[in-house]
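User: hey, got a sec? need Fusion glycoprotein F0 folded
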Amino acid sequence: MFLIHSILALSIIFYQVHGSCNVYSNYYMLGKWTRNSLQNLACKYANDSCVYISLNVPALAIGTFTGCSSDVGAILTSIVNKRIDVRKNFDKFFNNNIHLIDMELFCNVRFLIISFFLLIYQIESNKKK
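Assistant: Yep! Here you go:
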């Protein structure tokens, strides 16, 4: 359990890297395979961060993609917009001004959730001693 939390916490660190990102995608969406070779590219915007997403949405998409947060946000938005039930789960992260998922909000909320579970794990571990 601790190993899983450590890996998740490590993924948050990757989100904090700025400048240029390794860009790669390898995922199936509605039976169509999208694959791009690994490249290191400069981000379009100064406030972009590097983001890695691994997803498995049954009957919609499975795979991984990584890159600058604005590009990854566009890819993730295009995937979740394919099904209304999936889209509704992302409403709290959707920025209506730019019509994309707000990756900064999405990644920061994920960080809070992971931090909470790490805290619970530490408390439970201390109770067993």
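Quick note: The helical segments are 2-15, 69-80, 84-89, 103-128. Let me know if you need anything else on Fusion glycoprotein F0.
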